[in-house]
Amino acid sequence: MWLAEIPEKFRPTALASQFPRVANTLCATWNDAPRRGDYLDDLITGGRRRNRRGFPASVHRELQRLGAVHAILTSLQHSTWDAPASEVESQSRAAR
């Protein structure tokens, strides 16, 4: 399962359990940084469809965390979780 590949502190468990289709689409876009960024931005901001109800707070926090990880991976020029965890973690803390 792809969730197991994500470090536990970044693993979007609420997203996966409450919105599995969204989680699977995110997984499918993860290795393509531009698509990943666009999809995360669309999910976080509501995108073009303004009639969305929005996500529960726990899911929204996970999406924001993944958005921060995306930015970090992009700045480190890594497309997947192959960036050293310490780099991602320290950058994540600095972004808060």
Verbal overview:
With 96 residues, this protein is mostly helical. It has one domain (11-95). Helices cover 61% and strands 0% of the residues. Helix 3 (33-45) packs antiparallel against helix 4 and helix 4 packs across helix 5 (85-95).
Task: Summarize, please.
The chain is built from five helices and no strands. With 96 residues, the chain is mostly helical.
End-to-end distance, in Å? Answer: 29 Å
SS-based class: mainly alpha
Annotation field: number of helices: 5
Average of the residue pLDDT scores: 80
Number of domains: 1
What is the string of SSEs from the N terminus onward? HHHHH
CA-based shape:
globular
Count of individual beta strands:
0
Residue share in helix: 55-70%
Rg of Cα set: 13 Å
Uncertain runs? none
Please indicate the percent range of residues in DSSP E strands (runs of 2 or more). Answer: under 5%
Largest sheet: none
